[in-house]
Design brief:
about 35% strand; about 170 residues; alpha/beta; about 25% helix; 4 helices; seven-stranded mixed sheet
Length: about 170
């Protein structure tokens, strides 16, 4: 996340959950928009944000996979985010919703935007494994910059960073 920070950089936390990514990014100087489909998740994230003193986060109740007419979305979710971070959202979606996810994320990123996806590498967590090849197929306008092993919720995971290719 820190490697993508520039003054005024905007970060979109996809499926914010407990707000960990949003809080970390706000503390590093990003203008953060945290989105989740669950009001309870946004409530927990707000509470953690208040305790952390990271009050510059905008919280949005929305579904990035929802199909909608052009421009018909929360105005706080525009296509100008420099970086989107998905720490556990895509792998929780059924594969048939992945194209809608990819379209929504691509719409919300700036023309030079980047995406970081952290997902489980196996099925033992009840999630769908995601490979770099899956992401390359979902985001053909993006290049895979790196894929690194990591952990998520105590299980083996992978972090994949993609950047939009220049036109």
């Amino acid at each position: 996340i820190a490697a993508h920070h520039t003054p005024g950089a905007r970060l979109l936390d996809l499926g914010t959950g407990d707000g960990a990514v949003a809080i970390t990014a706000a503390q590093r100087g990003f203008a953060v928009t945290a989105v989740d489909i669950a009001p309870s998740a946004l409530g927990r994230a707000r509470e953690r944000t208040d305790r952390a003193g990271a009050r510059t986060i905008t919280f949005v109740l929305d579904d990035v996979t929802a199909s909608r007419p052009e421009g018909a979305h929360d105005p706080r979710l525009d296509g100008a985010h420099d970086l989107a971070v998905d720490r556990g959202l895509l792998h929780a979606l059924p594969r048939e919703r992945w194209p809608a996810y990819a379209a929504g994320v691509a719409r919300l990123l700036a023309p030079t935007g980047a995406l970081i996806v952290v997902a489980h590498a196996g099925t033992d967590q009840g999630t769908t494994p995601i490979t770099a090849a899956d992401l390359a197929a979902l985001f053909p306008a993006f290049a895979i910059m790196r894929a690194l092993p990591t952990t998520l919720a105590g299980a083996t995971a992978q972090q994949v960073e993609l950047e939009r290719r220049p036109p």
